[in-house]
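new request in #modeling-help
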Amino acid sequence: MDINSYNSAKQAALKRYFSRMNDMQQEAVFTVNGPVLVLAGAGSGKTTVIVNRIANMINFGNAYFDTSRQGNDDDTAFLKEYAEGRTDDFDTLRDIVAVDPIRPWNILAITFTNKAAGELKERLSAMLGEEALNIHASTFHSACVRILRSEIEALGYGRDFTIYDSDDSQRMIKNVMGELDVSEKQLAPKAVLSEISFAKDKMITPAELRADAGQDYRKKMISKLYALYQERMRAANAVDFDDILVLTVELFEKFPEVLEKYRNRFKYIMVDEYQDTNHVQFRLVSLLSGGHRNLCVVGDDDQSIYKFRGANIENILGFEEQFEGAKVIRLEQNYRSTQTILNAANSVISNNNGRKPKTLWTSGEQGDKVYWYKAVDETDEAKFVADTILASYKETGRYSDNAVLYRMNAQSNSIERMLVKCGIPYRVYGGMRFYDRKEIKDVTSYLSFINNHNDMLRFRRIINEPKRGIGDSTLTVIEDISRDLKISPFEVLKNCEEYAPLSKKVTALRSAYQMFEFLTEKSEELPLDEFLDVLLDKTGYLDSLKALENAETKIENVQELRTSMAQYMEQAEEPTLGGFLEEVALYTEADRDDGSDDKVTLMTIHSAKGLEYENIFVVGMDDGIFPSSRSFDSEDDMEEERRLACVAITRAKKRLYLTNASQRMIFGQTQRNVTSRFMREIGSELIEKHDNAAAMKKHLEENDKSVTEVRSATLQQQLARSKKASSAPKEAVTYTAGEKVSHSIFGEGIIVSVTPMSNDSMLEIAFDKVGTKKIMANYAKLKKL
DNA sequence: CGAAATGGCATTTTT
DNA sequence: TGCCATTTCG
């Protein structure tokens, strides 16, 4: 018996089983043990690799690289037959080669979005059938919530904790700021929240932030707010999105036996989109994989575009150092785009320094050159897009082949208008999420409060919605009592007669209590959807909606919530109110999108990641828009813009259209921008340049006229303004970095940088008291010192 | 308390 | 320019 021939026959047979994949992809699929980094370029079949790798783990285990198992001559003969395609007997193949096949429930596959998790589950089911149901495929957040639901008591929270979304967090921080008398003008709630979030990601506690602040007034204030915010969250038995991850890490770090339990449960871990992980996520993954080290991360450093929300590209760049002995597999063969498009992407991204060198290639055709349309203004740009789409529609009869991508949402406006004008159906991605609508948030707030009687924030939201005569002042009293006596708002209502300050409101409070008491009871007795009907009726909320404008839409939305509740009940093993609320908190609009009708898609480049279209239009290739002017003074930010460009380019399968405009109206102001530097970086040999000569000429002729018109308009405005202020029009003052200035609101500071912009310049000023701010020179009330 | 008016603000976004 | 959140007024 010849072991080598068994082994090589086995490898050949397995290669045939996974023959739909190229050699590099197979390498990733067969490598089951130890740390693995799969650098998967755009369109390189990343998801396919993940799905097949899991299939390999479950069916064959470490069969491919194993040398311990031996086979007899019959086995070898069978394997040869299989390899040559003379038999398809899968069961026998598995029996002969499998080595320690991995049980589905020992696999944890983590994605960033629910949509990705859903797709993964679907593809796994298609490939593996029933067994796939036992694979834990979910987002970081749902995986952690699941763990916290059974373990969080160790950290002093209750199991029925409520998840606060960003809107809730914002309300909470505003409340906290009000309590500490911090004006929202002095410190933007959004900024405070983002600093808290940043601190949480770094796992810095309020006390540590405080210690770190030293004499920095702003930092000290933020640490105070952070401390109170956490205190209130805990009292409400609520966690925010950051907490979900942070608390899980805390749990694992404080309780080794709990960590051990989950290490044993999740023996094999895969992380998708690893380039977008932040610090806590890295820590979490490190902890979980710490014992067995079976960690496979998949991602593309060239597509890391979420630095602004905490993604740390160093996680993927440093993987080999952090996980010693990691195997690195590069997937560079692209199955999506033409070679020309790939060359454009390669060419742009090669200007970045902080990256792992990769070159995308395809065995497919060269394809057409990149089409550059140099528009006169944003209307001309939109017209070009619409015309081109119409032309393609004539050929293919499909609108859905086309997507228009832009750097910022504000750019969609001009495109939308033109598409409407030309009768082209379209859909805009992003925007208001279903669960963010007021009526939906109100109803879920009712549900939340009934589910968690400590949830003060939700209680506040709905106690007087519809009006029950319980206004702000009464609420403040309730809140104080609840805090002082450490009891829930529900309890305060229950015992309202006992508290003197509430004596005038006893009737209203009593009836509110009875209502919530009744609903709480019903929530335990009735099926969820029936309970919702009772709630809508008993609270009078549905009736109150009827009186509003757009009542129909709002009622429809509430009905839709009922539908998703019914769906949840069908799909969940054990439907509970808490479970439903968890879904509401963790799931987003994108998960409900079907995308089935024939429409052009409009979206930001960020939301286009992972998608592909025959024809891609990237509009606004102006320096200042894309790349964003905010990235001009930081090389790191510019590199991220460049990665974004790479993402945009590689969305196109067949044709790529890039447009810029010599003049464009944005935020009510006309800007003149030079062509995006990325156009130059693509290289002229890949580009076919076009413009609208007639429009250009007309534009030039009109330009003198329009400029004078604009001037006279501004002059008039200035005159009007000066009349109001009864002072002479401002003289243009020039500023230079290093100058000391005084601002009417922010106080004294030093100019850090001066960026000239159209007719004005943007000053970055480090104020002594309020930190660094960006201000337009002409608008700032500045005095030179 | 609710509608109207003002004012400030404007990358990118998932959970 | 257009949206929103907050203020202001009746």
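bot summary: Residues 184, 410, 413, 665-669 of chain A lie near DNA strand C (CB under 10 Å from a C1').
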